[in-house]
């Protein structure tokens, strides 16, 4: 065998375990899920073929589904944009030669390592109407804080506020991108009289666009799949009340969970999953 053929053979041998896992555990499950979306399976009886009735019902009759779509898009768009702006601002200050900057970077990154369940429980306590620290802090200024997780008008802002807790990972990536920018650009800009904010706007931000785009994509994927925070903070530990007051915090994945594992409409839940995938 030639060297090229040997390299190709080793490539296929080494990629074979991953390929086997992808076909059997991912692609196979996706195909099976799509097949289930065309049935009315309840987990206990034999699936009955209904064609595209589940999709038609989702788009024409299910008002809660459309509310879940709106809530998810509202949360994803605002939380991702707010997180990116917050990350860019914090990254700007942490990248400057400030004493103790290494400590500040560590402190900002630590929340990103906290499990989602622990973070949700923490914010459920912080946002409590009477004993929560946030409302107690507002009371010091004579402000009557809202019932964050009990008020339909404030439950989504509460979830968005919590999403800023884990921007440490985005800040780390942005700072890594900043460190990779050649210092010659800043030296030339400084000789031309550019101020630090002007250098950040004219040099840093344009050269950080690949990192910003990556954070945008990853942030949108995570926001569209939000589940744990909804389950812990507005579900009172159970699926029966998940979604908050008047379904104000009902998102697509929690709605999928309710249909599949509370109402035993696995075919309907599979259809929701495929709409989320598209």
Descriptive overview:
The chain is mainly α. The chain has 2 domains: 3-55, no CATH class; 63-277, MetI-like (MetI-like fold, Orthogonal Bundle). Helix content is 69%, strand content 0%. Helix 1 (3-36) crosses helix 14 (266-277) and helix 3 (63-94) runs parallel beside helix 7. The radius of gyration is 24 Å and the shape is flat. The mean pLDDT is 88.
Q: What oligomeric assembly is this protein in? A: single chain
The ordered H/E elements are HHHHHHHHHHHHHH
Mean pLDDT: 88
Instruction: Classify the beta-strand content into a percent band.
Output: under 5%
Determine the CATH topology of the largest domain: MetI-like fold
Poorly predicted regions: none
Number of helices: 14
Write a compact overview of the structure shown.
Helix content is 69%, strand content 0%. It has 278 residues and is mainly α. It has 2 domains: 3-55, no CATH class; 63-277, MetI-like fold (Orthogonal Bundle), CATH 1.10.3720.10.
Key attributes of the depicted protein:
278 residues; mainly alpha; MetI-like fold; 0% strand
What is the strand and helix layout of this fold?
Blueprint: H1 3-36, H2 53-60, H3 63-94, H4 101-113, H5 116-126, H6 133-139, H7 155-163, H8 168-179, H9 183-191, H10 196-207, H11 209-224, H12 228-233, H13 252-261, H14 266-277
Helix pairs in contact: 1-14, 3-7, 3-8, 3-11, 4-8, 13-14
């Amino acid at each position: 065998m030639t060297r090229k053929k040997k390299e190709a053979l080793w490539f296929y041998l080494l990629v074979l375990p991953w390929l086997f896992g992808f076909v059997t555990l991912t692609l196979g499950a996706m195909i099976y899920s799509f097949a289930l979306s065309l049935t009315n399976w309840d987990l206990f009886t034999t699936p009955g073929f209904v064609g595209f009735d589940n999709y038609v019902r989702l788009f024409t009759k299910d008002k809660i589904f459309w509310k879940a779509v709106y809530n998810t898009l509202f949360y994803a768009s605002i939380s991702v944009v707010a997180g990116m702006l917050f990350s860019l601002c914090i990254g700007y200050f942490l990248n400057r030669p400030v004493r103790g900057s290494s400590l500040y970077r560590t402190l900002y990154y630590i929340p990103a390592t906290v499990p989602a369940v622990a973070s949700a429980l923490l914010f459920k306590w912080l946002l409590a109407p009477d004993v929560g620290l946030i409302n107690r802090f507002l009371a010091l200024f004579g402000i009557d804080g809202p019932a964050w997780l009990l008020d339909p008008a404030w439950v989504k802002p509460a979830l968005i506020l919590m999403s800023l807790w884990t921007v440490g990972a985005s800040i780390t990536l942005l700072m890594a991108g900043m460190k990779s920018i050649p210092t010659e650009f800043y030296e030339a800009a400084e000789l031309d009289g550019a101020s630090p904010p002007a250098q950040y706007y004219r040099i840093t931000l344009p050269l950080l666009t690949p990192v910003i785009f990556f954070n945008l994509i990853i942030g949108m994927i995570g926001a569209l799949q939000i589940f744990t925070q909804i389950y812990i903070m507005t579900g009172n530990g159970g699926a029966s009340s998940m979604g908050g007051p008047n379904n104000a915090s009902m998102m697509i994945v929690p709605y999928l969970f309710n249909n599949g594992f509370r109402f035993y409409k696995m075919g309907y839940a599979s259809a929701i999953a495929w709409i989320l995938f598209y």
